[in-house]
Amino acid sequence: MRVLIDVLGSQSEELADLYRPPRLPWLRVNMVSTLDGAANGESGRSGSINNAADKAVFAALREQADAVIVGAGTARTEGYRVAAVPLVIVSHQGQIPENLRDAPAGKVLLATCSSSPGLDEAVAQLGADNVLVVGESQVDLAALKDQLVARGLTTLLSEGGPHLLRDLFDAGAVDELCLTFVPRTIGGVHPRIVMGDAVDADLELAVLLENDGTLLGRWFVRSS
Ligand SMILES: NC(=O)c1ccc[n+]([C@@H]2O[C@H](COP(=O)([O-])OP(=O)(O)OC[C@H]3O[C@@H](n4cnc5c(N)ncnc54)[C@H](OP(=O)(O)O)[C@@H]3O)[C@@H](O)[C@H]2O)c1
What we know:
The chain is an alpha/beta fold. The chain has 2 domains: about 1-45 and about 55-65 and about 155-224, Dihydrofolate Reductase, subunit A (3-Layer(aba) Sandwich); about 65-155, Dihydrofolate Reductase, subunit A (3-Layer(aba) Sandwich), CATH 3.40.430.10. It is built from 6 helices and 10 strands, in the order βαβαβαββαβαβαβββ. The chain has helices at about 15-20, 50-65, 70-75, 120-125, 140-150, 160-170; strands spanning about 1-5, 25-35, 65-70, 85-90, 110, 130-135, 155-160, 175-180, 205-210, 215-220. Strands 1-9-10-8-2-7-3-4-5-6 form a 10-stranded mixed beta sheet, with helices on both faces. α4 links the parallel β5 and β6. The two termini are about 35 Å apart.
C-alpha cells in the first residue's frame, strides 16, 4: 500500500495507524465502487467488485470498530453473520435477517422505529435491551448514533448500503467516508454508493492510498 496523501501526518504505513479516528465519538462509512460508479457487481453483491486491497481496509476498520451498523437490505443481500463486535441492523420493517436470528445475546442489535410492523417479534427474538426504538415513523439515525455512544460504543463503522448511507448523510450522522475505487468499469445497471433522494455532503480528503491501481481514501465530512 502506497501513501499518496496523508494530511493527518500519521507518518506510518500501517493501516491501523492510517485509519485511526481523529477523535471520539466517530462514525465512518466504508464503501467500495468501480470507476464507473457501481456499488455492486454481477452477483448483486459488493463481493463481485472488491479486491484484496479493499478487503485489507475492510478488516482494519472492523478491527477498530466498537460496533458495525448495516442496513437490513445489505445484511440480507450480503448474508451477514455474527461478527466480533455487535452488528446494528437498521430496518423500518423490523425484520432481523434470517442468518442473525439465533445470534448470542448482544451480538445483534436492531434499530427501528415505534411504527415498525416487526417490533414485537424483534423484541421477542433479541430481547428488549437489544432493540433500539429511535423515532416514530422513521429511524432517527442521529438519535441512534447518540444511543450507541451512550452505551460506550464510540468508534462506529457503517458498512452501508447505499440507502442507509444516504440517510446517514441526511441525518448529519457521518464523520467520515472511507471509499475504495477499484480500477474497473463494468457498465450495466448497478446502484451507486449513495441512493435515494438527493442529499449533498461536503467532504474533504484526509488520506489517499494506492495499491496496484486501487485508490483507497478517507474523506471527512466538513462540519458546517
Ligand atoms: N459497494 C459497497 O460498498 C456496498 C456496501 C453495502 C451494500 N452494497 C450493495 O448495495 C445493495 C443493497 O443496497 P440497499 O440500498 O438496498 O442497501 P441498504 O441501505 O442496506 O438496505 C436498504 C434497506 O435497509 C433498511 N434501511 C436502510 N436505511 C434505513 C433507514 N434510514 N431507516 C430504516 N431502515 C433503513 C431498510 O430495510 P427494511 O426493508 O428491513 O425496512 C431498507 O429497505 C446490495 O447489492 C449490496 O451488495 C454495496
